[in-house]
Amino acid sequence: MKDQTCQERVKDHYEDRISDLHKLWQAYSKGEEEVEDLGNIFEYGLAFDYVPFTEDDDRQEPGYFRYQLSTGGPGDEFRFFCDAEKHCYRVEYWFLDWYVPWDDIADATGAEDPSELGFVFGVSSTGNSRPPCGSSSRR
């Protein structure tokens, strides 16, 4: 069996996360406490926080809200970019693998459009960047 490409790994992880979130959201919407092997929607992720832009930040992107799902090798998260009125205009899925060279990111096309995550957070996305696959050391 051949090793998966970065793109295949991102797609698989993304699809698994979206599937889990759909199951958790459906259970929550029906008033069910938990989903077997997943728990409940409020305990699924690790953190929901804001990552601000700073002048010395080499990202050259605005700050964003981060729904962090895992850390380590690999980590993954959804990033929500909002305007000044907190309207979400872009959602990105980031798969952060320590063992993939950062230079490979430019060639990673990643997963499908993550705007479907809006069903949980009540947002719609009008666009998204390509979800990268690479080293978490250069965020």
Give the topology, please.
Layout: H1 6-29, E1 47-51, E2 64-70, E3 75-82, E4 88-96, H2 118-121, E5 133-134
Parallel strand pairs: 4-5
Antiparallel strand pairs: 1-2, 2-3, 3-4
Q: How does this model look, in words?
A:
The structure is a single chain. Helix content is 20%, strand content 22%. The protein is α+β, with helices and mostly antiparallel strands and 139 residues long. It has one domain. It has a 5-stranded mixed beta sheet with strand order 1-2-3-4-5, with helices on one face. The longest helix has 24 residues. It is globular.
Q: Low-confidence parts, pLDDT < 50 over ≥5 residues?
A: 102-114, 123-139
Largest sheet: 5 strands, mixed
Structural class, from secondary structure content?
alpha+beta
Rg, rounded, reads: 15 Å
What is the number of strand segments?
A: 5
Number of domains: 1
SS strand fraction: 15-25%
